[in-house]
Amino acid sequence: MENQALASELRTVVTRLVKKLRRKSATGDQLSLTERSTIFVLDQYGELYPNELASMEKITMQSMSQILSHLLELGIIIRTPSQTDKRKTLISLSDFGKEVLLKVRSERDEWLDEALHQTCTPEDMDKLIQALEPLKKLVEFD
């Protein structure tokens, strides 16, 4: 298989797997894709300003404000006044938000574990283990 064909096939398979994983969480289905992504970003960074979140999600501040309002209403995030600038508010996950995130990850991991055991031979599993390092390198490439 030539490199261009490999790139195309890999992109297609990874995209389909990601889409399938997104659908395999009943908890995550209750939130929009951008709301889920915002929760994952907050988990990664701890706390951020709304404008930072909007920039990272590549959406307008108005859209981010709507997302944050909904997440606040659900009890998933908390707003804390900035210590350095009282006009600004930092956003972070609430304890409930952290529980939601863990549940979404757990539901996805359970589905993937079951899928691996139902569809892969021990040889397939070994190949997947070997493929993890090159895939990690692709994720880190800019």
Task: Please describe what this structure looks like.
It is a single chain. The chain has 142 residues and is mainly α. The protein has two domains: 78 residues, no CATH class; 62 residues, Orthogonal Bundle (Arc Repressor Mutant, subunit A), CATH 1.10.10.10. The protein is built from six helices and three strands; from the N terminus they run H-H-E-H-H-E-E-H-H. It has a three-stranded antiparallel sheet with strand order 1-3-2. Helix 3 packs across helix 4.
Keyword list:
142 residues, mainly alpha, Arc Repressor Mutant, subunit A, three-stranded antiparallel sheet, 70% helix
Q: C-alpha Rg, in Å? A: 18 Å
Q: What is the tally of beta strands?
A: 3
Helix content: 55-70%
User: How many helix segments?
Assistant: 6
- C-alpha end-to-end distance: 24 Å
Number of spatially distinct domains:
2
Order of helices and strands: HHEHHEEHH
Task: Determine the structural class based on helices, strands and strand pairing.
Answer: mainly alpha
Strand numbers in spatial order across the main sheet: 1-3-2
Outline of the structure:
By secondary structure, this protein is mostly helical.
